[in-house]
Structure to design on (546 residues):
């Protein structure tokens, strides 16, 4: 029993590190066979009482992960016992060779997502090792040999049954089993592609016009970003940010409020139409997921272009063109009453297709911390963003509590320019930030230093405004650059609806506006006794009145 209890404690610590389970409860749960039919019923009341899950459906998802984790730990324990009880061979034994193969095994496109849908993520390293050993290179081949894989992974009956059902779900379409990332681009509109995506749970959106989730592009604290496409739109590709609502908020007491903040981010993005801001096209919410469908920008983060540059920093010519785009985009953002609050090279994407030699085309992304500060009902008061780019009024909790405005973005813009030209952060301590104390290490020109110092000022009112930034002598040194800037994208029609009086419940009204935004894919923001709606071209305005 001690062994089972230790394994249960370990699994809980790995899956639910912030949830306390006492010894008495652990002893009870350790007696439950996770593969038994009534196993979930035994765990269910404790998962809900400890605020891990809110209902049976979400508890079931947590339990599947815990069960997979316990099975994985049991196999590791058995492998260790087998190795320790036998004489050590002079040549590497098979398990050791397998481990080496796991480490060097190339990823199979779609395999990780497929195993995740089966709650078998813990088996990913061994599955990759098996693929490398038998010469399997695609998800299609994995499916064709699924029984061999199940035997290699030593799956018990329940997980093996899930894998069999997943494979059988593909077969009614009589389709060739291929990975999402390796789909034949010319065959994307065929019904069998949709059937395969549906079987893999890679569809979202309306049934008559769904999106198909493809390969993973990246991830962060809130969710993962994937490539996606829409068959009825001639295979046009997008980026989709997937946020697991149950997983993301299961331990948060104010989960509903956090969800509303995510929708507020979407509402802000719907109102922004600029050539140097990543555009939001659609928002889809299900019980389990929130999907933000955005413009696909392929070229990586500006941060990577800086650190991988042959000089480990950009030249002034290169930095000047990026700065022009950022200043122009920020000026537009601020004109909408929005403050970004997390401007940094990691949140600036490079558009590889539009870029030219020595001239990077960039777009600002990640408005997760953005806030509408000019609505007459709210003020930015919280410490959000990235400390290396925080203005003094944000880094100082006392000052922060009294509120701040869009001028925090001016400080961040100055830090971004410094990082582009110097290749390092300007500050190494909070005290340096409070005093705006920094040094230059590269042979940066005097006019560039002057612009950086004009932005990195302790007092917000002393910081150089964006209009003056674009007129600064360092920026206007090359007059040809300004003329090469892309014009802002076509902005939707803006219509204002007067409320006549102050809303009796601002929170409730904002919630209703966000529902309106999600349904009709338009921005609807409360601004000083008015609702400002930004209509996009493809919206049926008459439908919104019904």
């Amino acid at each position: 029993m001690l062994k089972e209890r230790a394994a249960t404690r370990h699994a809980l610590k790995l899956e639910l590190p912030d949830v306390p389970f006492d010894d008495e409860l652990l002893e009870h749960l350790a007696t439950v066979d996770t593969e038994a039919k009534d196993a979930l019923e035994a765990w269910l009341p404790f998962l809900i009482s400890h605020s891990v899950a809110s209902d049976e459906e979400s508890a079931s998802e947590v339990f599947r992960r815990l069960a997979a984790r316990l099975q994985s730990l049991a196999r590791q324990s058995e492998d260790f016992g087998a190795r320790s009880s036998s004489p050590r061979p002079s040549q590497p034994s098979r398990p050791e060779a397998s481990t080496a193969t796991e480490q060097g095994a190339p990823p199979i496109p779609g395999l990780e997502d497929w195993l995740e849908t089966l709650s078998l993520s813990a088996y990913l390293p061994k599955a990759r090792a098996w693929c490398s050993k038998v010469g399997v290179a695609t998800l299609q081949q994995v499916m064709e040999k699924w029984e061999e894989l199940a035997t290699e992974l030593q799956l018990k009956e329940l997980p093996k049954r899930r894998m069999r059902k997943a494979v059988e779900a593909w077969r009614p379409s009589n389709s060739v089993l291929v990975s999402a990332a390796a789909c034949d681009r010319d065959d994307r509109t065929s019904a069998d592609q949709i059937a395969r995506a549906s079987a893999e749970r890679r569809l979202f959106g309306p049934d008559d016009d769904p999106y198909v989730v493809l390969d993973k592009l990246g991830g962060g604290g809130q969710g993962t970003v994937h490539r996606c496409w829409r068959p009825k739109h001639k295979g046009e590709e997008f980026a989709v940010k997937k946020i697991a609502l149950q997983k993301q908020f299961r331990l948060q007491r104010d989960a509903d409020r956090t969800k509303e903040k995510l929708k507020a981010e979407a509402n802000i993005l719907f109102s922004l139409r600029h050539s140097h801001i990543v555009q939001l096209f659609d928002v889809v919410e299900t019980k389990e997921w929130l999907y933000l469908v955005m413009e696909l920008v392929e070229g990586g983060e500006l941060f990577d272009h800086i650190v991988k540059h042959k000089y480990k920093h950009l030249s002034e010519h290169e930095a000047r063109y990026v700065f022009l785009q950022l200043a122009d985009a920020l000026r537009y953002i601020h004109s909408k009453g929005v403050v970004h609050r997390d401007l940094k090279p990691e949140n600036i994407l490079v558009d590889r297709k539009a870029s030219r030699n020595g001239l990077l085309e960039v777009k600002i992304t990640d408005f997760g911390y953005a806030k509408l500060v000019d609505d007459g009902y709210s003020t930015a008061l919280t410490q959000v963003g990235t400390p290396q780019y925080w203005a003094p009024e944000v880094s100082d909790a006392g000052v922060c509590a009294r509120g701040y405005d869009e001028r925090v973005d001016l400080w961040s813009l100055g830090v971004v320019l410094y990082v582009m030209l110097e290749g390092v952060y300007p500050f190494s301590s909070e005290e340096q930030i409070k005093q705006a104390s920094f040094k230059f290490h590269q042979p940066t020109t005097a006019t560039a230093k002057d612009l950086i110092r004009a932005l990195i000022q302790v007092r917000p009112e002393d910081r150089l405004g964006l209009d003056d930034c674009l007129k600064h002598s360092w920026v206007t040194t090359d007059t040809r650059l300004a003329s090469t800037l892309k014009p802002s994208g076509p902005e939707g029609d803006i219509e204002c609806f007067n409320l006549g009086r102050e809303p009796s419940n601002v929170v409730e009204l904002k919630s209703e506006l966000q529902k309106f935004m999600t349904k009709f894919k338009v921005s609807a923001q409360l601004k000083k006794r008015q609702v400002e709606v930004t209509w996009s071209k493809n919206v049926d305005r008459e439908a919104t009145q019904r």
